[in-house]
């Protein structure tokens, strides 16, 4: 899975690797996590030269949506449409932010963000799905996504369409914009689901874990707990495009008294111009 960063942006400190994963039950936040949840080990380090050569690159012309991740700048016009929402997020006022998101200011911001997202579409497969503006207050947990029961799910795979394993690499990608005022991070296991399936099958450890929705990724982390999690910094005013239906992932933001504000949607996107591989 190839990673690309904005051209000209400093690469130092942008990407870090963990020493693997561990059960959420082994953390101080254990009670806030669902049963079986896995999280990154919080010892982070820069990638080695060899690891950088594996992480960074340029997707082949025939690359599928599930083969690459990119970080890209967001146009000022889009960010300007979020001015009122960003102010409420900076104040940490959740009620005011929800009212703005549901009102005219939120609708205007959503329209502007969708308009920009559509410029990133693959011309052969235009369209945007599941557009959403939302905010979360970081609590300091290793990951942020919660399930229907209100508990955090840990590293997980999205399943909007509940696609079978063979179709995961061609599923729509996720576009996520950091509209807040502080850095946030994309956490991901830089291995597509089919690579996980092959690794487990070769060792005869796939039985009962071939469902890509949850079982496959969890079994991979149990068998390979030292496989690193990649932590990618997304600065304010930046976005990422990633195949979240084809990789284990989650988001993270540090507690700072502000609300972590995002716009996200799904679609078939092309690699934007002006993106660097940062191989050195």
From TrEMBL:
Protein name: Phytanoyl-CoA dioxygenase
């Amino acid at each position: 899975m190839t990673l690309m960063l904005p051209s000209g942006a400093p690469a130092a400190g942008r990407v870090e690797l963990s020493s693997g994963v561990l059960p959420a039950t082994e953390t101080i936040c254990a009670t806030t996590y669902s049963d079986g949840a896995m999280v990154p080990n919080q010892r982070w380090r820069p990638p080695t030269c060899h690891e950088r050569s594996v992480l960074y690159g340029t997707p082949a012309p025939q690359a599928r949506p599930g083969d690459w991740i990119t970080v890209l700048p967001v146009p000022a016009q889009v960010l300007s449409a979020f001015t009122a929402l960003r102010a409420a997020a900076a104040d940490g006022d959740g009620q005011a932010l929800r009212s703005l998101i549901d009102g005219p200011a939120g609708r205007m911001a959503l329209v502007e963000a969708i308009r920009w997202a559509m410029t990133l579409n693959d011309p052969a497969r235009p369209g945007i799905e599941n557009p959403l503006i939302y905010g979360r207050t970081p609590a300091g947990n290793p990951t942020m996504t919660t399930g229907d029961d209100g508990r955090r799910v840990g590293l997980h795979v999205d399943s909007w369409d509940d696609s079978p394993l063979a179709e995961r690499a061609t599923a729509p990608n996720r576009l996520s914009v950091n509209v807040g005022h502080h850095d946030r991070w994309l956490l991901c296991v830089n291995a597509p689901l089919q690579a996980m399936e092959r690794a487990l099958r070769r060792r005869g450890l796939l039985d009962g874990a071939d469902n890509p929705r949850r079982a496959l990724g969890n079994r991979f982390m149990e068998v390979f707990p030292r496989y690193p999690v990649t932590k990618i910094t997304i600065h304010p005013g930046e976005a990422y495009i990633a195949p979240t239906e084809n990789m284990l992932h989650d988001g993270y933001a540090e507690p700072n008294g502000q609300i972590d504000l995002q716009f996200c949607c799904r679609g078939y996107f092309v690699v934007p111009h002006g993106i660097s591989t940062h191989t050195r």
